[in-house]
Amino acid sequence: MIVFDTYAWVEYFRGSLQGKKVQGFLAKEEVLTPVLVLVELSVKSAKEGWDFEKHLEFIKSKSLIVGINEEIIKQAGGFYVAMRKKNPSFGLIDALIFLVAKEHQAKIITGDPHFKNLENVEFLE
Q1: Residue spans of the chain under pLDDT 50
Q2: pLDDT for residue 6
Q3: CATH no. for residue 50?
């Protein structure tokens, strides 16, 4: 089981070399997409003029959309604060995506430098 973060989906839709690697995961893995990733993609679509509804339908057809539960909410504050001490640009949504993956015992697929050197992250390079 793997979690695609926003970076992975963006590269997939751009058709980049990293996006080709993402495509390989889609073909052979059970993919989870946190609902917060969809929010970030909605913003990116608005900024860049993408057809968000088309991308959303594709994501829903290829992955399971997952939210955050009470356990993730309880862990979020401490994890976020700890990560900000190590990396002041680490975002709250990054923290939540990481905790969603941890909750589902899944690996994160990303190229986002905020996730570098974290456990259970496969970095697209």
Answers
A1: none
A2: 97
A3: 3.40.50.1010
